[in-house]
Amino acid sequence: MQIENSAFERVLDADPAAFVADWLNEVRASASSSGAGASATGDADARGLVEALRAGVRGGAPLGRFDDAGWQSLREGLASLSASRAAQGASAGDTSHFVMAVKRPLVLGLQRQVGDDPQKLFDLMWLVSTFVDKMAQWTSGTFQKSREEVIRRQQEELLELSTPVVKLWEGVLAVPMIGTLDSSRTQIVMESLLQRIVETGSELAIIDITGVPTVDTLVAQHLLKTVTAIRLMGADCIISGIRPQIAQTIVHLGIDLQGIVTKATLADALAVAIRRAGFTVTREKR
Amino acid sequence: MERIPVLRMGRVLLVTIQVDLQDQMALQLQDDLSAKIEQTGATGVLIDISALEIVDSFIGRMLAGISGIARVLDATTVVVGMQPAVAITLVELGLSLEGVRTALDVERGMALLRADGRDTLDD
Fold this sequence. Notes:
The complex is a heterodimer of chains A (286) and B (123).
Chain A: H1 2-14, H2 16-29, H3 42-58, H4 72-88, H5 92-100, H6 103-114, H7 118-161, E1 166-169, E2 172-178, H8 183-200, E3 204-211, H9 217-232, E4 236-240, H10 244-253, E5 261-262, H11 266-276
Parallel strand pairs in A: 2-3, 3-4, 4-5
Antiparallel strand pairs in A: 1-2
Helix pairs in contact in A: 1-3, 1-6, 2-3, 2-6, 3-4, 4-7, 5-7, 6-7, 8-9
Chain B: E1 6-9, E2 12-16, H1 23-40, E3 44-48, H2 57-72, E4 76-80, H3 84-92, E5 101-103, H4 106-115
Parallel strand pairs in B: 2-3, 3-4, 4-5
Antiparallel strand pairs in B: 1-2
């Protein structure tokens, strides 16, 4: 191990600036036609990674084992590289390509160092090759994780965006539900609606499901739960916006909506609400 | 042991639960309340649980039980001020408290009992 590490150390120490330049040239030369391989921060990224690589080699970390504690700073460097590339919107292929491109300058450097001993050169090249592959693999892994993180955050934001509780009238709240209803979304809607009922002291809540594409037994169960919770708190609930197809589905599925006030449109529900509150709506003669 | 006070207001009995309800206290309350309804001839029972933040199935069942007992003794029960978290918990436990009337706050609960038109008979 020690012999290999010293060979690598010599390669990296020989001329770090030239090494980084070779690396970036390689990235540019073999980049895909879109040319996205070399980004604006490529230089700084490469220099940081070379530093981490050197620290690992000098610390005697085994090249055969990428998961060794000695490679901790290299792994962190690669993780932050993939995170920043993911945030910039680079593709996974370009990001791992950037890392793979380090293979050529490393191999060339080794050739300069031990070119006169073919057997040794071959052994070292094999080590370099597998090591760089592992670096690239790790980078793609963390790249994917960062992308998934972005997706998860967007999902959460979407969840909050899509469930506003609006005040329609004095003592009347409405929730226009948009999109497919699953357990977590219904839970959020239920919680925010119940919270608003307490805050505003509203006695009537209207759940409008015009924007809900399908209603199955699970969705219906979620709706029933919400209605029951609203009743327990001492308010009442109307479900509006039931389209003809959904009405048919509900009946065919044998879902029991007995005891729940349902209306075809939000306007009908509002009319009921206004009447219950003791108001009458009249048109002024002109 | 702590006891939950039962206050009389006209023909309505007012119970305000201000502490976390222990099972023993709940049973005691059930006893006290049924005795008091019989004693005073109350026609309405108003239970304010706005300070109650934790419920379990036992407490849920007890609320339904009190309402049932009161109904047998010819009094209407209104549970007021249930917190959202409590409502969600009860629904998830499968307790919809059928037959228990609910209102958002004490004022509305009183209005509900008054609308029954029975608590005005005596005064």
